[in-house]
Amino acid sequence: MRRSPVIASLLLLVGQPAALAAEGVVRQEHRPNELLSSWLVGAEVKGANAETLGTVRTLILDEESGRITGVVVASGSVLGFGGKDVGLRWDQLKIEGEGRELRVDISAADADDAPVFGFRERRVRPPESPPTEPSSASELPGGR
């Protein structure tokens, strides 16, 4: 039986996880001190006096450092209606229960009075230009 080149390549990779990990590219698991973003999105956010402020809608990441700089909390909604998005600084949050809950030192009234978080539009990259063909022989290397 003949194997396809793709399957043969995959079999080689499966047999060599240590080699890939040694290159510093592939990870097999996350460390005990690391949380997954999926654990944080949807987590309950509680304020002063254990008041529920809302749930984490999304994380805000710094594009250059890759670090989390904040969260956007869906606050004040009832059954998903009403309410608003409030931005909170990451360095002001305390993570509890492996990300099941975040705490911040503001009250529900502070969250209600906070400005609505302003999402910006994602920047659109200009389309890559296809390589241009020389239009005449004089543009070829050597002028031929």
Account of the 3D structure:
By secondary structure, the chain is α+β, with helices and mostly antiparallel strands. It has a domain at 42-118: PRC-barrel domain (SH3 type barrels, Roll). The chain has 4 helices and 6 strands, in the order αααββββββα. The chain has helices spanning 5-14, 17-22, 37-40, 108-113; strands at residues 44-46, 52-61, 68-75, 84-89, 93-96, 101-104. Strands 4-3-2-1-6-5 form a 6-stranded mixed β-sheet. The longest helix is centred in the first third of the chain and has 10 residues, at 5-14. The termini are far apart.
Which structural class do the helices and strands define? alpha+beta
- Named CATH architecture of the domain at 42-118: Roll
Helicity level: 10-25%
Helix and strand pattern: HHHEEEEEEH
In the sheet with the most strands, the strands line up as 4-3-2-1-6-5
Return residue spans where pLDDT drops below 50 for at least 5 consecutive residues: 8-12
Percent range for β-strand residues: 15-25%
Summarize the main sheet: 6 strands, mixed
CATH topology of the domain at 42-118: SH3 type barrels
Mean pLDDT: 82
The CATH homologous superfamily name of the domain at 42-118 equals PRC-barrel domain
Q: Kindly provide the name of the CATH class of the domain at 42-118.
A: Mainly Beta
Q: Which of globular, elongated, flat, extended, rod-shaped describes the shape? A: flat
> First CA to last CA: what distance?
52 Å
Q: How many DSSP-defined strands?
A: 6
- Round the Cα radius of gyration to an integer and report it: 25 Å
What is the helix tally? 4
